Amino acid sequence: MAASMARTCRYVWRHGPCILPRLMSLCLSPRSKFHCSSSVYNGLLLSLNKRGILKESFPDNAAQDQLPRLLQAGAQTVYCGFDPTADSLHVGNLLAIIGLLHFRNAGHNVLAVLGGATAQIGDPSGKTSEREPLSLDAVEANTRGIRESLQRIFANHELHFYDSSKQLGTFAVLNNLSWYKDWSVVGFLSENGKHFRMGTMLSRHSVQSRLKSADGMSLTEFTYQVFQAYDFHHLNQVYGCRIQLGGTDQLGNLMSGHDFIHKVSGEEVYGLTIPLVTSSAGDKLGKTAGNAVWLNRDKTSPFELYQFFLRQPDVSVERYLKLFTFLPLAEIERLMEQQRVDPGKRLAHKRLAAEVTKLVHGKDGLESAKRCTKALYNSSVEALEEMSDEELQELFREAPFHELLLEPGTTVIDACRRVNAIPDGPKGYRMVSEGAVWINHQRADKPEQILIPKLHILSNGLTLLRVGKKNFYIIKWLSL
User: Is the pLDDT of residue 170 over 60?
Assistant: First the structure.
């Protein structure tokens, strides 16, 4: 009965409607442990390895023979987990998403599993201390934000990067809370805990490093590997999933899942790790100085994401083009050669920034990023006029936003004072007359000048006011 149900679930998964709508192997290299046989030389794993996306496999012999043959045998199901510890994923998570997209583009089915349950446990991997506990409401809100982010990125990939000559695999976002909510603590441990050995669990690097720390490790965190292992088992039984993708810090958890499934069902499953992407300074990419670069627009605008990749050092650009874009390797090489010939044009940087922004925020997001770039760095009035209220507030995120009635005879100094941009009295008047005030990138040094449409007030009803070098104010004029 159980076997029949599992086969039925797998059929529904592969052929049913629970997918994103249509609009929504390897040669040895110095960086990798992967090998290949000639029969799989041109396979997916080789392509991912050449791009630097894959690092390790488990079991160790999987990439040499078994896994490439499995991928060639037909569409497989691959999963990667994302714990909703924040309401958005960040650039550090992007490579895992891109890994799933490569598998989907090759015709394999992919699952993005949100840890609505495991986020309440806390993954100790790569952490020096225990996470602050999250409330159920926070986990639910975070799950919604990450689900939206994943669905948007997969839809953008299908719209802008999908090779229509290939059969696209299916995609679904799941929440592991759905298969834990009906378990009791006693029931879960009595049925599954007996398959885990304390010695093996204690030997994991994530456990050892924490046990040696001053704060040690709580029982809650210690059990995290049990839950991730059960996730893999559940997905294997219900969706036929045999491949798990995760960061290098997840290797111990991947091993636990492999061992658990092998003991329970005897089925062979595989783990693949992706490298931890760091900047040239050794910081986690997108999290330098604790300032994460997020994938949701309300936390990091398309302009900010675009500028983040545009500003990457020259030494990192080729690697990031291979990791974060779907450009063919030959095209990347041509692009780098053009950059070497004329580095001042920064063609590779611009293409990297454009490709990533389009994947994360779509074509409209990329156009918004370019408008904001022209408005800020090229002092383009035309770009300012094309910008929406949202874009202007994103571009000048710290700038106060004011909605004011446009009264007849309003002057430059009136506008400045109404938004408290200058002091009252003679000092404020002098600041204007001495050239400290700029309106729409033009110096406004006549305090009594009446505001002129299309000069001081753009056709979109906005005014960008700057006092000094960095103090911006955004005014949206309302007609009487």
Answer: yes
Q: How far, rounded to the nearest angstrom, does the alpha carbon of residue 68 sit from its chain's CA centroid?
A: 28
Alpha carbon of residue 255 to chain centroid: 25
Q: Is residue 194 within 8 Å of residue 260, measured between CB atoms?
A: no
Q: Is the pLDDT of residue 390 over 70?
A: yes
Tallying the residues shown for the chain, one arrives at 480
Please measure the distance between the N-terminal and C-terminal CA atoms of the chain and give it in whole angstroms: 73
* Residue 13 or residue 238, greater confidence: 238
- Sorting pLDDT into bands at 50, 70 and 90, what band is 129? low
CA distance 429 to 425: 7
Residue 255 carries which DSSP code? Answer: H
Q: 472 pairs with which residues across the strands?
A: 466
pLDDT in tens, 59-101: 877 667 889 889 989 999 999 999 999 999 999 999 999 999 9
The predicted structure's pLDDT at residue 5: 41
Task: Compute the C-alpha angle 178/77/284, nearest 5°.
Answer: 80
The amino acid occupying position 122 is: G
Amino acid at 225: Q
Q: With beta carbons less than 8 A apart as the criterion, state whether 94 and 323 touch.
A: no
Token pair listed for 71: 């991928």
Place of tokens 């806390």: 122
Rounded distance, CA 463 to CA 418, Å? 13
With 0-12 / 13-18 / 19 or more C-beta atoms within 10 angstroms meaning exposed / middle / buried, residue 155 is middle
From the number of C-beta atoms within 10 Å of its C-beta (0-12, 13-18, 19+), residue 156 rates as buried
